[in-house]
Amino acid sequence: MAAASRIRALWLTWFSQPAGNRALYRCIQKQRPRRIMELGLGNLTRAERMISLAVRHSPVGEIQYIGIDLFDARPQGLPGLPLKDAHKLLRATGVRVNLIPGSPLEALSRTANSLRDIDLVVISADQPDIALEQAWFYVPRTISADAVLFREESSSREAKSLVLKQLSRLDLQRWAAAATPRRRAA
User: Fold this and answer.
1) Which helix (H) or strand (E) holds 86?
2) What pLDDT does 118 receive?
3) Cβ(101)–Cβ(71) under 8 Å?
C-alpha cells in the first residue's frame, strides 16, 4: 500500500494531466498543508488529488478541505455539480469537508471569521476577476502566516492550456487593500 501511494504521488507531481497542476502537487508534497481551500471546484478531480497527497503526510482526521463553488447555481456552459453529490464524493476521502455554496464574495463574507489558518488556497480559472475583486478583502484573515496561494490562469503559449501560478503576499496585500470598503466622512 505504501509503495502504491508513493508511486501515485510521483505520478501526480511529475506526470499528471493537466500539467499545470503539477506545481501545486509538488507544493503539497513540500509544504504538507492541513487546511486547504479551493475557490471553484471544477469536476472535483483536482480536489481529490490534493486531498490524497495531503493525507500521505498527516492523519486523515487532521486534514480539512474547504470548497467554495456555485454548485447547483453554476451558469450554463459549466458542467453541473450538485452540492449533495460533491459532498458525498469528497466525504468518502475521510477528511473533514466544508462545502460552501455561493460566489467567492458571498461565501467568504459569510464565513471568513470561522475559517482560520488555511495553509493552501487554490483559485480556479472559472472564477472571474469581477467575482474576486471584493472577495480579496476576506482572504488575508482566513490564511495562516505561511500559507501558499495559487491562481489558475490561461497559459500564454496554448489557448486551452491552464497553469497554476503562485501568488505573492505583496499581490494579496495589494488586492485586499483595493477591496477594502471605503467609508465616507459625514
Assistant:
1) helix 83-91
2) 96
3) yes
- DSSP letters along 132-166, please? HTTGGGGHHHHEEEEEEEEEEEE-SS-SS-EEEEE
- For residue 44, count CB atoms less than 10 angstroms from its CB and return exposed for 0-12, middle for 13-18, buried for 19 or more: middle
Cis amide linkage into residue 18, ω under 30° from 0: yes
Interior/surface letters 68-78, b for 16+ CB within 10 angstroms, e for the rest: bbbbeebeeee
pLDDT exceeds 60 at position 186: no
The answer to whether the predicted template modeling score (pTM) of the entire model surpasses 0.70 is yes
Sign for the pseudo-dihedral over CA of 170, 174, 175, 181: positive
* Percent of the chain whose predicted confidence (pLDDT) is above 90: 59
